[in-house]
Design goal:
Pfam families: HTH_3 (PF01381). The protein is mainly alpha-helical and about 110 residues long. It has a domain at about 5-80: 434 Repressor (Amino-terminal Domain). About 55% of the residues lie in helices and about 0% in strands. The chain has helices spanning about 5-10, 15-30, 35-45, 50-55, 65-75, 90-100.
Length: about 110
C-alpha cells in the first residue's frame, strides 16, 4: 500500500481536486515562462522536491511556499481576495441572523439626591 500522508487522508474529494488543479495551473504557468522546476524552486527559495509536490497538488506543501512560488510567477496579486470577508455572503447572512433584533437603551442613572 502507498504512503498516504495524514494531510491527504483528511482532504475531501473536492479539496483534493482543487489542489490538483492548482498544482497543474502552477506547472503550466512555469512551463509557459520557460522555467525548469529547479529554476523556479531556486527563485522561490524552496527545494525542487517541494515544488514537485506543489505541482502534483500534494497537501503537505506549506502555504508560504505556495505564495512564494505564485509571487515569482507573477500570479500572487489576487491572493488578497481569497476568503475576503466582503465576498462571504454565507458568513454575512449567518452574522445577520445572530444579530440582536433590537438594541435596548441603557438605563440612565441621573437621579440627583
Amino acid at each position: 500500500m502507498g504512503n498516504t500522508s495524514l494531510a491527504s487522508k483528511a482532504l475531501s474529494p473536492d479539496a483534493a481536486e482543487t489542489l490538483k488543479q492548482l498544482g497543474a495551473n502552477i506547472k503550466e504557468a512555469r512551463v509557459r515562462r520557460g522555467m525548469t522546476q529547479v529554476e523556479l524552486a531556486t527563485r522561490a527559495s524552496t527545494s525542487h522536491a517541494a515544488l514537485g509536490r506543489l505541482e502534483r497538488g500534494e497537501p503537505s506543501v506549506g502555504i508560504g511556499i505556495l505564495v512564494q512560488v505564485l509571487d515569482v510567477l507573477g500570479l500572487a496579486a489576487g491572493l488578497g481576495q481569497v476568503a475576503d470577508p466582503d465576498m462571504d455572503d454565507v458568513g454575512k447572512s449567518l452574522q445577520q441572523l445572530k444579530s440582536p433584533k433590537r438594541v435596548r437603551t441603557k438605563k440612565r442613572d441621573d437621579l440627583d439626591f
